[in-house]
Write a structure and sequence with these properties.
Blueprint: H1 4-18, E1 39-52, E2 56-69, E3 72-74, E4 77-83, E5 86-98, E6 106-122, E7 127-144, E8 150-160, E9 165-172
């Protein structure tokens, strides 16, 4: 494998080590990551990160649509990627299971997503556009910030097409 995996691993490690310091210091920070139950718009926010194969910098937005079952949360997102002579637009529909009973400032989660991506490959003679469908698995951790907003670090691996892996950091307002 290329060295991009080392970069992704280093970014994940740095984020996981440094971000808990941003969370509240009191026991109230161990509350649920979402303040309301049920399905509906609970928040939104930006996401930034790195993707592998094609190797890209990604940025986009996600929408916290709440729970449709206890501890099962839906947070679709759209990411725009640049790099490796490719421009990409990927939309995904992840379903996450939150481990809310963990007595920590971090709420871990795992799950999977269906994704569709449009990849425009820059070639010397002309451009080539491909549409890829993917199945992703992954997980992450989310922290409540002093402001009341939430910060998360997430890693997804693709089982079918799209990116081989993507690591993002996101804020929910």
């Amino acid at each position: 494998m290329r060295s991009h995996w080392k970069v992704v691993a280093a970014l994940v490690a740095i984020a996981l080590i440094s971000v808990p310091a941003l969370a509240q210091d009191d026991p109230a920070a161990v509350q649920r990551s979402t303040d309301t139950d049920g399905f509906g718009l609970r928040g939104w926010g930006p996401r930034v990160g790195l993707a592998a194969d094609p190797d890209q910098v990604v940025a986009g937005v996600h929408f916290d649509l709440g729970e449709f079952a206890p501890q099962v949360w839906f947070q679709p997102d759209v990411l725009l990627g640049f790099g490796d002579d490719v421009t990409s637009l990927v939309a995904s529909a992840p379903v996450w299971y939150r481990f809310e009973d963990v007595k920590s400032r971090v709420t871990p989660y795992v799950g999977g997503a269906l994704a569709v991506g449009v990849f425009n490959v820059d070639k010397k003679d002309n451009d080539d556009t491909n549409v890829e469908f993917g199945l992703q698995v992954g997980g992450g951790g989310e922290w409540r910030l002093k402001s009341g907003n939430r910060f998360a670090v997430e890693l997804r691996l693709d089982l079918v097409d799209v990116w081989d892996a993507v690591v993002v950091a996101g804020w929910t307002f």
